[in-house]
Amino acid sequence: MVADKISSERKYECHRCWVEMEKKEIEIFGPNLIIDVCPKCKGIWLDEGELGKLLKDRKLTNYLTKHIGTKSRSPMICPRCGNTMDIEKADDVEVDVCLTCGGVWLDRGELEALKGKSEEGFEGDELAKEEELDEERRYKRRNSPLYRFLGKISK
Ligand SMILES: [Zn+2]
Ligand SMILES: [Zn+2]
Questions:
Q1: Rounded to two decimals, what is the model's pTM?
Q2: Where are the beta strands (DSSP E) in the chain?
Q3: Residues forming a β-bridge with 24
Q4: Coil, helix or strand at residue 118
Q5: How far is the CA of 104 from the centre of ligand 1 (A)?
Q6: Model confidence band, residue 1 (pLDDT cutoffs 50, 70, 90)
Q7: Whether the Cβ atoms of residue 67 and residue 131 lie closer than 8 Å to each other
Q8: Residues 6+ apart with CB under 8 A from 89
Q9: Rounded mean pLDDT of 82-95?
Q10: Neighbours of 149 (CB within 10 A)
């Protein structure tokens, strides 16, 4: 029945090669994971939550996919939701993360590289994250009804 499950899931197109990505099943602890792999460039698309299941490293996953700011530094458009993406760095490994759906694009070799970072004990660079946290705070402030109200009455 696995085949049915795979074919019923939505297909993505590789943003580099414009070919349909293939569903690949990965055996992990718990239910198997089905991820999308480009048959040409071997890029990998991971929906939100899938990176954590593969890396089994919550800290590194959160670092890469949570609090990523609001600005897009990546030219890539999310294959899942069509929104802008941002580049997140784990040391020298750069991955693209969707600002809207939290999906992650990994070029060939980046999953191994991230796993390596995780095994080395890399937990994120808080200093590098500061700017994005700041962006997020400013964004939240701008969109908070209280701050909008305070802005109005102080004019
Ligand atoms: Zn490709
Ligand atoms: Zn997205």
A1: 0.82
A2: 22-26, 33-37, 44-46, 85-90, 93-98, 104-106
A3: 35
A4: helix
A5: 14
A6: very low
A7: no
A8: 95, 125, 128
A9: 94
A10: 10
